[in-house]
């Protein structure tokens, strides 16, 4: 049976993952996201432990400070989260190419699962 994750546990995992990848302390991240320097470390710690889930606006500010798409912080699927990071770093033109290729993959996968009819 698949494990169900709460939004706060997913957010906590992704936030810490992105913060460590960015080589920021909890305090640095909090300050960069506009949290008062005296409470920045404690608030980020609470978010990373899943004790509190920030409002969407704060999630957006944290994502901006971490240079990740906001959706990354809320994505349950690890592979899709990694794809979001990669896609976010592409130019607009390359994002269009990636989307076209993804659509082609989806269509080729669905055409293989559809059995031809005997006419």
UniProtKB/TrEMBL annotation:
Highest taxon of the lineage: Bacteria
The HTH cro/C1-type domain covers which part of the protein?
15-73
UniProt xrefs under SMART domains:
HTH_XRE (SM00530)
Name the chain's protein: Transcriptional regulator, XRE family
What InterPro entries does its record include?
Cro/C1-type_HTH, Lambda_DNA-bd_dom_sf
Q: Which GO terms describe its molecular function?
A: DNA binding
């Amino acid at each position: 049976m698949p494990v169900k994750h709460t939004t706060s546990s997913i957010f906590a995992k992704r936030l810490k993952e992105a913060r460590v990848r960015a080589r920021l302390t909890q305090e640095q991240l909090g300050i960069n996201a506009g949290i008062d320097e005296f409470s920045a470390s404690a608030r980020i710690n609470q978010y990373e432990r899943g004790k509190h889930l920030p409002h969407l606006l704060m999630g957006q500010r944290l994502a901006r400070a971490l240079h990740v798409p906001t959706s990354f912080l809320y994505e349950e699927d690890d592979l899709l989260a990694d794809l979001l990071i990669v896609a976010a770093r592409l130019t607009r033109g390359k994002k269009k190419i990636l989307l076209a290729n993804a659509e082609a993959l989806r269509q080729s996968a669905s055409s293989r699962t559809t059995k031809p009819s005997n006419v």
